[in-house]
Amino acid sequence: MYERKIPIDYTCGLSIAMEVAISKWKFCLLTEINKGVVRPRDLFDAVHGISKRVLHQQLKELEFHKLITKTIYPEVPARVEYNLTGDGRQVLPLLYAIDQWGLEYVPKLKKLTEEI
Length: 116
Known about the structure:
The chain has 116 residues and is mainly alpha-helical. The chain contains five helices and two strands, in the order H-H-H-H-E-E-H. A two-stranded antiparallel sheet has the order 1-2. The chain is globular and about 55 Å long.
């Protein structure tokens, strides 16, 4: 079992948010699931650059933190779908606000990187 080297600071909201929802891929996965992309293969196709191993790891973490639920249908072959929980839907406005800020920042970032 993984043992943390640095304990979680339960008195800092930003620390908790970063622990639960912030990673390179979790925002993308949450927004894709919200759009209706619920099957692992479709999520893999929708999130460009993610590996299958990382996809499954990130989905497992989101499920552990109760931001998504996993449903396994008793079919052959097995069908798996992910859906947002109430907590998962609650984080969406924050994700969209960050996305909007990022899009507005693009010209500044381009200018800064061209100066290098």
